[in-house]
Design brief:
Helices cover 19% and strands 32% of the residues. The protein has five helices and ten strands, in the order E-H-E-E-H-E-E-E-H-E-E-E-H-H-E. Strands 1, 2, 3, 4, 5, 6, 7, 8, 9 and 10 form a ten-stranded mixed beta sheet that branches. Strand 2 (46-47) and strand 3 (56-66) form a beta hairpin.
């Protein structure tokens, strides 16, 4: 049996998340169906992580076992001919039997995008959260600094989290704000929030963003982020931000070399 690794990109707008569910219509369901058609055998994929309904992926990594002899360089083109237009295989290689897309991942980066302007961009509405009132970028950056390092993120994950430990390490937490220059009607700022860590809890990024937005609005202080973390209580944090602004942006592996 061969162990095939792939990078998958997808627009999650129309799907019930990545992980297979009884009612179907997930990214995993579509991928497994297409791979089974392609190989003529049942295929079960392993994903690097789950994304919720409406969340996107620039670089979702999956692996699966197969007896198919399709050459490595043929996998993406063949699979894309069987996938819907909002799911795309962009890379494939053969990896050692021990490789596991989730367990071997060392770092993941999620990106949340906010269009801070009077009007939304209807052509980007599935990929950006529109927020029309001004946000204090400096205050949001100061709050992000509290998240870098190893912490118990109980306050910043869903109360429905089933993980035994809520301790995670964030290596990077950055906010970039760029003026929107290409459309004077929709002038404003495009904000991207990048979080890189060794793992993420259920709704963790979206709750962090929801809390940051309240800080940017002046409803909370930057220093409140440290108090929220220390409190280990979900009720202390802000709301869960909308799913469509979130993208699984990047994943890093060490054991067998990284992939771009």
């Amino acid at each position: 049996m061969r162990n095939i690794r792939m990078i998958i990109s997808y627009d999650g707008t129309s799907y019930n998340g990545f992980q297979s569910q009884p009612n179907g219509n997930t990214i995993q369901d579509r991928l497994e169906h297409a791979l089974s058609r392609l190989t003529g055998e049942p295929v079960k994929i392993i994903g690097s992580g789950r994304t919720d309904a409406g969340v996107h992926a620039r670089k979702q990594v999956v692996n699966f076992s197969t007896s198919s002899r399709i050459p490595t360089e043929k996998w993406t083109k063949a699979l894309n001919s069987l996938l819907p237009e909002d799911i795309l295989a962009v890379y494939a290689d053969e990896v050692p039997e021990y490789f596991h897309a989730r367990k071997c991942a060392k770092m993941k980066t999620y990106r949340y995008t906010i269009r801070n302007s009077c009007y939304p961009d209807i052509f980007r509405r599935h990929f950006e959260y529109h927020h029309y009132t001004p946000l204090d970028h400096a205050a949001m950056r100061r709050a992000l600094a509290y998240l870098v390092g190893t912490h118990d993120f109980t306050s910043l994950c869903s109360a429905r989290s089933t993980q035994e430990s809520h301790v995670r390490t964030l290596f990077r937490a950055e906010l970039t704000a760029v003026p929107i220059m290409d459309d004077p009607i929709r002038e404003g700022t495009l904000i991207t929030i990048d979080l890189t860590g060794n793992g993420f809890l259920y709704n963790m990024v979206r709750i962090i963003v929801g809390t940051l937005i309240q800080i940017g609005e002046g409803k909370r202080t930057s220093e409140s982020m440290g108090l929220i973390l220390a409190g280990k209580d979900r009720s202390l944090a802000g709301p869960t931000a909308m799913a469509h602004g979130l993208t699984l942006w990047d994943i890093k592996y060490d054991e067998i070399g990284d992939i771009t």
